[in-house]
Amino acid sequence: LCRSSWVEEHFNTTGTPEGHGYGEGRCADESGNLLERACYSFDRGRFHFIGVDSNPAEGLEGGNIDEAQFEWLERELVANSTTYYDEDGNKVSNPVATDSLIVLFTHHTISSMDNSGLPPGSSSGRSGEELTELLLRFPNVILQADGHTHQNKIWAHENSELGTGYWEVNTSAIADYPHQSRTIEIADNRDGTLSIFAVVFDAAAPPDVRAFDWATGDP
């Protein structure tokens, strides 16, 4: 199954939104041509969500971000940041942009994006370390949600010199015992700070948890 066929299957559904993200903002180059990787972005209120495809074409376990997608991601970050830092750490003002709170989705964690073995003729893949360096140039990147490791973990990433940072929240696969998933909520604390609540829950729990007898029914 090729990557484009996999994307098309997301439109063969009665669920919403149509295409499950791929119908709104598929990643493209500066000429408008769709990229090979299945990346996309969309807006919801104050948030800008970016889905990055970290799965290399050769299918090895480790992930990476190809050069075309990396350049698209940087354009997405710039377009949603009125202030950011260039590669040399210089502050850049971008008055034509509108500030959004940026949330990134990837399959691989930062530490597992270590695949440098792209197919012949492909440009080198960018690593997780390079992705972190890019994200830390943008103060309004607040969260990276990912999977791959089949574990539940959370890491803080920061650049102390620039005063920037974001959280990486890693969630296990639903196929793994004890079959857990995670809800993520972002709250405005009304004091210039945000709180991120990343709550792990058992998927096997009854849908109406208020009807659950915790005293006798929880093993």
Biggest sheet overview:
6 strands, mixed
Return residue spans where pLDDT drops below 50 for at least 5 consecutive residues: none
Number of helices: 4
Radius of gyration: 19 Å
Key structural traits:
219 residues; two-stranded antiparallel ribbon
Structure description:
There is one protein chain. This protein has 219 residues and is α/β, with parallel strands linked by helices. The protein contains four helices and ten strands, in the order H-E-E-H-E-E-E-H-E-E-E-E-E-H. The protein has helices spanning 3-9, 67-79, 128-135, 214-217, and strands at residues 40-44, 47-51, 83-85, 91-93, 101-105, 141-146, 153-159, 164-170, 180-188, 194-202. Strands 1-2-5-6-8-7 form a six-stranded mixed sheet, covered by helices on one side. Strands 3-4 form a two-stranded antiparallel sheet. The chain is globular, with a radius of gyration of 19 Å. It starts with a helix and ends with a helix. The model has no long low-confidence stretch (mean pLDDT 90).
